[in-house]
Amino acid sequence: MTRCTSMASSKPAPTAEANGQNGRALTLNQQSQAAGIGSETIDDFLDRQPRSILIRLYEKPASCLAIFRLLPIMARQLVMHMLFLQQPPSIDDLHVWIKKDGRASFQAAVEKLVRLSIVKQESVAGRPSQILLNGVFTKGMQRALIGGGDHRSFGVPCDTEDKNAVDVAYLDEYARTKWETILHYMVGSQGSVTPREPVLCVLRRSNLMQEGSKGSSRLSITSRGFQFLLESVNTQLWYLLLQYLDMAEGRSFDLVEVLAFLFMLGSLELGRDYSTEELPETQLHMLEDFRDYGLVYQRKASSRRFYPTRLATTLTSNAATPLLASNGNEQEERGYIVLETNYRVYAYTSSPLRVAVLKLFVTVKARFPNLVVGSITRDSVKSALANGITAEQMYRSDPLLPVTVSDQIRLWEREKNRVGQELGALFTEFSSQADFEQVRNYADQMGVLLWQDESKRCFFVAEEGFQPVRDFIRRRVT
């Protein structure tokens, strides 16, 4: 008689081999791509939108200008060449402008513009193919450049003086405080303020945070969330905003109005106040949400004016200005952390946020006004691993960490990962050694044998091998 039991088996988990003596970590960009941070951009999001959405978006000049700024250089050149032409150029005419070694870039630019419904190729019998600019985009782009119309897509400046006016320095401090409130909550800083539910919903949806332990209402950071903390503020912000865009339909928001408001914010003047009276209902809801991210400032919720912060005005800019650190100085340059081969860590920083991030995997021993002293220990690393942070995220390939430290971190990670689970079935109680060997060999030939104990006449097969092995026993053994 043979007995079969379905269960989960534990076995050594596969480990990645070190790449060279030092086991170089992934670069920060590779880690970000692997974690999904920055793997999709607003450019990719627009590529996925149907033509109907894009055409409505192009009715707003501010959106046309913002999307134009996001285009590759070659695509921008093509748009500017054709924008004020009376007759659409043919493909042959455009090829005259392009060098031979730039033909690939030209074709990629045309394909990009076609995907965004900015241009279309049209073939006429007996004539070379032409490239036509979308009429709605042309009109919107021309208005963005030379003015005209009453579209007000670039915001409506307030025509009355603000008795409680604020300056740029105040807006920078406000934006930094609001944004770091979210980051402090993510790293679990002591005394951190819990953001409003809409922000928590975005953090959960983006897999930056997950439900904490039973009995705890606080969310806990994930591996992706830790990688998120290492990115620039602009990358972090767009990652959350893309999640916000994906949630727009579920909240019954008009996606065109959501995108138009984002692009409008990127075109506003820092330090100037704008009226809310012309904003539709969707954008008024967004204004309330964006206060939580530090994108806009309002003295109170019922205020009829708002100020865009630096976070908002640099949304569509490649040269985003970093926020000021909490001590009023510019953020420290790379290299502010010193790590010794004895696992001692010296961090020359006064930023509470940076200290909070360090505490995720470093045991802090002492703090001074501009210096934090700590050490990397087995317990601190295991605590970080328990939070979903991987060993590769604890060090960068440039510069390399001391070999003794990087290797030890890997060993501590392998302690946690040396046992893995496999679903399958355990076959036991074979009536004879011959029956055991016959069935065991069959499972081995199928490649589903995971474990065996010949002395006890039992073996374990993978889940997909359960039914074939059981059928074999019925045919051959019983």
From TrEMBL:
Q: Which InterPro entries match?
A: Tfb2_C, TFIIH_p52/Tfb2
Stretches the record annotates as Disordered: 1-22
State its location(s). Answer: Nucleus
Concerning its family, UniProt says: Belongs to the TFB2 family.
Physiological role: Component of the general transcription and DNA repair factor IIH (TFIIH) core complex, which is involved in general and transcription-coupled nucleotide excision repair (NER) of damaged DNA and, when complexed to TFIIK, in RNA transcription by RNA polymerase II. In NER, TFIIH acts by opening DNA around the lesion to allow the excision of the damaged oligonucleotide and its replacement by a new DNA fragment. In transcription, TFIIH has an essential role in transcription initiation. Component of the general transcription and DNA repair factor IIH (TFIIH) core complex which is involved in general and transcription-coupled nucleotide excision repair (NER) of damaged DNA.
**Primary site of residence:** nucleus
The root-end lineage is: Eukaryota, Fungi, Dikarya, Basidiomycota, Ustilaginomycotina
Identify this protein by name.
RNA polymerase II transcription factor B subunit 2
Q: Which organism is it from?
A: Pseudozyma flocculosa
UniProt-listed GO biological process terms = nucleotide-excision repair; transcription by RNA polymerase II
List the molecular function annotations (GO) for this entry: ATPase activator activity; double-stranded DNA binding
